[in-house]
């Protein structure tokens, strides 16, 4: 699965992000400054990447997941090397 031209994927996490009991993949794309999520069909294949921008030249580097807002749904947390900050994607998937 392509993460895009010059995307430079650095980190992945695997979890059921959309609560459909199928595993999904989130990717930190350093080169294109976005976080991509591939929603799984449950048969080893995935939908096309859904892209979430982390800001111009943010360069997301590492990903983690957790229920930050305590709603029993996973949130994605990304460290941004370009800005020296983090992004939290809550209930985006």
TrEMBL record:
This is VCBS repeat-containing protein. It holds the Pfam family FG-GAP_3. Keywords: Signal. It comes from Adineta steineri. InterPro entries: FG-GAP, Integrin_alpha_N. The lineage of its organism: Eukaryota, Metazoa, Spiralia, Gnathifera, Rotifera. It comes from the Eukaryota.
